[in-house]
């Protein structure tokens, strides 16, 4: 599954701008949480259309598990959700959230090369190298 994550309309870009020019101190986040979208992902930093399957939880993604080359960060190992979904879920996109629940999106839209169906009892997996977090160059 090819997954390409790009900054959303407001989410990641707004955060970066507020940190650079809003007077907020910059602190590095060491862990993000992957959000699975089963509907059209939002175009701002809010979280809507997130999976609500009975066993679904966001998957922690440590920054140390990424290789950074230029403006692209790629996962170095498989990202495997901890539990099988109880129902069949069609994954449309994934995104990066700041917290394991709630929080807000930093980047939106990791296309999975089209929808990916995760059947009941299956575990969702993004293979090593298939998640690319891409910050557009200016």
Concise synopsis of the structure shown:
The chain has 138 residues and is mainly β.
Keywords:
single chain, 138 residues, mainly beta, eight-stranded mixed β-sheet, two-stranded antiparallel ribbon, 1 helix, 10 strands, 39% strand, globular
Task: Describe the model.
The radius of gyration is 14 Å and the shape is globular. The chain has one helix and ten strands; from the N terminus they run βαβββββββββ. The longest helix has 11 residues, at about 10-20. It has one helix at about 10-20; strands at about 5, 30-35, 60, 65-70, 70-75, 80, 90-95, 105-120, 125, 130-135. It has about 140 residues and is mainly beta. The strands form two sheets. The protein has an eight-stranded mixed β-sheet with strand order 3-2-7-8-1-10-5-4.
Write the layout of secondary structure elements.
Elements: E1 3-6, H1 11-21, E2 31-37, E3 59-62, E4 66-69, E5 72-75, E6 79-80, E7 89-97, E8 105-118, E9 125-126, E10 131-134
Parallel strand pairs: 1-10
Antiparallel strand pairs: 1-8, 2-3, 2-7, 4-5, 5-10, 6-9, 7-8
Q: What is the radius of gyration?
A: 14 Å
Total number of beta strands: 10
**Contiguous runs where pLDDT drops below 50 for at least 5 residues:** 1-10
> Distance between termini?
28 Å
- H/E series, N to C? EHEEEEEEEEE
Structural class call reads mainly beta
Strand content: 35-45%
Quickly count the helices: 1
Largest sheet: 8 strands, mixed
Q: What's the mean pLDDT score?
A: 77
Which shape, going by the Cα principal axes? globular
Helix proportion? under 10%
- Spatial strand sequence of the major β-sheet: 3-2-7-8-1-10-5-4
């Amino acid at each position: 599954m090819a997954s390409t994550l790009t900054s959303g309309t407001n989410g990641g870009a707004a955060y970066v701008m507020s940190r650079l020019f809003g007077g907020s101190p910059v602190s590095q986040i060491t862990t993000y949480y992957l959000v699975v979208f089963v509907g059209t992902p939002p175009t701002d930093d809010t979280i809507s259309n997130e999976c609500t399957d009975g066993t679904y939880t966001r998957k922690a993604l440590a920054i140390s598990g990424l290789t950074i080359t230029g403006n692209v960060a790629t996962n170095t190992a498989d990202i495997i959700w901890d539990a099988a979904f109880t129902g069949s879920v069609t994954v449309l996109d994934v995104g990066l959230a700041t917290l394991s629940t709630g929080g807000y999106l930093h980047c939106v839209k990791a296309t999975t090369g089209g929808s990916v169906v995760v059947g009941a009892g299956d575990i969702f997996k993004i293979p090593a190298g298939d998640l690319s977090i891409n910050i557009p160059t200016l």
